[in-house]
Amino acid sequence: TREDYPQTLPITSIEHTSLEVLDEEKARCFYVGLLGFKEIVRPDFDTDGYWLQGFGIKVHVAKAPTAGRVRYRREEAARREAKGWEGLPTGDHLAFLTDNLHGCEKILQEAAIPHKKVGPGPQGAVQIFFFDPDGNACDGK
């Protein structure tokens, strides 16, 4: 509640989101090839990965760096797969806007990417949910 935090941080925008993945090349193909992000310069870190930019946001993608993190990512992916569409639209997801939802649905069908169209919801929005190669949920509306 507001009483717990008497002042808000002076944040002006969201700079990036970060995704830990099992296979950075599969993720690159998905985010660059399907979603249209552009790869940008990334400093040399100990972990393999890359940075993307597009649509007013940056996405930092990093390969799971240790056996423990790989195990966790695999277990998390299995949990998400078992849940399927359950938890959406309120579960964690990246959301994108489009002016051609029908075109997005057609491309997802042609790419054989499972997706689910929902809506219209309370605000009249129709959305298409789908998952990246690591099971991270995405939606377009």
Describe the structure.
Helix content is 27%, strand content 27%. The protein has three helices and eight strands, in the order βαβββαβαβββ. Strand 6 (115-118) and strand 7 form a beta hairpin. It is globular and about 45 Å long. The two termini are 30 Å apart. The mean pLDDT is 87. InterPro entries: Glyas_Bleomycin-R_OHBP_Dase, Glyas_Fos-R_dOase_dom, Glyoxalase_1_CS, VOC_core. Keywords: Metal-binding.
Summarize the structure.
Keywords: Metal-binding. The protein is an alpha/beta fold and 141 residues long. It contains three helices and eight strands.
**Dominant shape:** globular
Structural class: alpha/beta
- Main sheet characteristics: 4 strands, mixed
| Relevant CATH superfamily | 2,3-Dihydroxybiphenyl 1,2-Dioxygenase, domain 1
Strand line-up in the sheet with most strands: 1-4-3-2
The total count of helices amounts to: 3
Could you state the order of secondary-structure elements as H and E?
EHEEEHEHEEE
The overall number of domains is 1
CATH fold group: 2,3-Dihydroxybiphenyl 1,2-Dioxygenase, domain 1
Please state the CA-atom Rg, rounded to the nearest Å: 17 Å
How much of the sequence lies in strands comes to 25-35%
Strand-helix topology:
Layout: E1 16-21, H1 24-34, E2 38-40, E3 49-54, E4 57-63, H2 67-83, E5 94-96, H3 101-110, E6 115-118, E7 127-131, E8 137-140
Parallel strand pairs: 1-4, 5-8
Antiparallel strand pairs: 2-3, 3-4, 6-7, 7-8
